[in-house]
Amino acid sequence: MAKTPLLGRTLDELKEIVFGLGMPKFTAGQIASWMYGKKVSSIDEMTNLSLKNRELLKASYEIGCSAPVHEMRSADGTVKYLFSVSEGNFVETVYIPEDERATLCVSSQVGCKMNCKFCMTGKQGFAQDLTAAQILNQIYSVPERDTLTNIVFMGMGEPFDNLDEVLRALDVLTSDYGYGWSPKRITVSSVGLRKGLRRFLDLSDCHLAISLHSPFPAQRKELMPAEKAYPIAEIVEELRRYDFSKQRRLSFEYIMFKGVNDSMVYAKELVKLLRGLDCRINLIRFHAIPGADLEGSEPETMLAFRDYLTGHGIFSTIRASRGEDIFAACGMLSTAKRQNIDSE
Ligand SMILES: C[S@@+](CC[C@H](N)C(=O)[O-])C[C@H]1O[C@@H](n2cnc3c(N)ncnc32)[C@H](O)[C@@H]1O
Ligand code: SF4
């Protein structure tokens, strides 16, 4: 019989588990400390639990960690890992070293329902939500886990479409009983889903990145069908209710497509849309994907766009493009793996 993973359980959930097994409640804290602090990979290693309790726990539970099944290293140091989450389903996790930072980009779903025109994960369609255990395993099981400085939920999937599991993973990541990470080192990226946005902002202190890509509703709808359900103007209105001037940072992601959204008309409209909001804009280079009639903007166009935005009060940066030589666009590697399996 398949065992239930302990990874991804909050302290309260661990207390319920040990209580159900007739163990004292403090055992939950010991398990959390072994798992999240010492990062053991088996229940046998939890040596301050009695042998009897370890056996009892092992009968139904396991840590639930599993190593990546594949990895690809870029010449620039970026490493893309592929984790198997169920029969024929894989997710990508990307390690990005950069000066003093070491960022891990994690996935929240296999595939995605949002169907953005420019995204390879969107093209896969939706296969499954990841559990908190599968989200945390991406951190637990990469060789660089102890050197990480930042975590971004910018891999496969829409985090607000799987918010219960994402919030559970964030609780473990940011609590003292868990990994004890500062929420300032974690960013969750979303297209903006109505229910999820407010819930995330109320229940988590982590940074938020909203994928914007066009300030014009008709064009945003064409690029990102999620605009139909929750227009960017309403998202921005909702965001105005929160304070982003202190610990928590709000940023907008803006992929620059040549001749599509990269003229000054767009920069001006962005300034209008975001006026008065404490935020920054990250301009992203488009990673070409097969079958999309879109091209990335020229570097000079991106620089001029950035300078206009920054000059008009919205601090903007151009995100360095990493790992171009290893199927950089998120979803490319897992799609290739799936196609490989299909042709076997
Ligand atoms: C893959 S998504 C995952 C998080 C969330 N679903 C979202 O869209 O914000 C992370 C970021 O990658 C961007 N992205 C998707 N496909 C891309 C591509 N082909 N080139 C560059 N950025 C891309 C998205 O727009 C988003 O800003
Ligand atoms: S960009 Fe984000 S929301 Fe859009 S399809 Fe890709 S993963 Fe989903």
TrEMBL record:
Residue positions binding [4Fe-4S] cluster: 112, 116, 119
Keyword Amino-acid biosynthesis: no
Cofactor: binding comment: Binds 1 [4Fe-4S] cluster. The cluster is coordinated with 3 cysteines and an exchangeable S-adenosyl-L-methionine.
Residues covered by the Radical SAM core domain: 98-325
Pfam families linked: Radical_SAM, RlmN_N
One MF annotation (Gene Ontology) recorded for this entry: methyltransferase activity
Domain of life, per lineage: Bacteria
Locations listed in the record: Cytoplasm
Cofactor(s) annotated in UniProt: [4Fe-4S] cluster
Binding locations of S-adenosyl-L-methionine: 157-158, 189, 211-213, 287
EC number: 2.1.1.192
GO biological process: methylation
Entry-linked InterPro entries: Aldolase_TIM, Methyltransferase_A, RlmN_N, RNA_MTrfase_RlmN, rRNA_lsu_MTrfase_RlmN/Cfr, rSAM, rSAM_sf
CDD domains: Radical_SAM
Active site location: 92 (proton acceptor), 330 (s-methylcysteine intermediate)
Annotated catalysed reactions: adenosine(37) in tRNA + 2 reduced [2Fe-2S]-[ferredoxin] + 2 S-adenosyl-L-methionine = 2-methyladenosine(37) in tRNA + 5'-deoxyadenosine + L-methionine + 2 oxidized [2Fe-2S]-[ferredoxin] + S-adenosyl-L-homocysteine; adenosine(2503) in 23S rRNA + 2 reduced [2Fe-2S]-[ferredoxin] + 2 S-adenosyl-L-methionine = 2-methyladenosine(2503) in 23S rRNA + 5'-deoxyadenosine + L-methionine + 2 oxidized [2Fe-2S]-[ferredoxin] + S-adenosyl-L-homocysteine
UniProt entry keywords in alphabetical sequence: 4Fe-4S, Cytoplasm, Disulfide bond, Iron, Iron-sulfur, Metal-binding, Methyltransferase, rRNA processing, S-adenosyl-L-methionine, Transferase, tRNA processing
Function description: Specifically methylates position 2 of adenine 2503 in 23S rRNA and position 2 of adenine 37 in tRNAs.
HAMAP family attached to this UniProt entry: RNA_methyltr_RlmN
Family matches, as PANTHER family: 23S RRNA METHYLTRANSFERASE, RADICAL SAM CORE DOMAIN-CONTAINING PROTEIN
Additional notes on this entry: Reaction proceeds by a ping-pong mechanism involving intermediate methylation of a conserved cysteine residue.
Assigned protein family: Belongs to the radical SAM superfamily. RlmN family.
Protein name: Probable dual-specificity RNA methyltransferase RlmN
Source organism: Bacteroides gallinaceum
Lineage, highest ranks first: Bacteria, Pseudomonadati, Bacteroidota, Bacteroidia, Bacteroidales
Gene designation per UniProt: rlmN
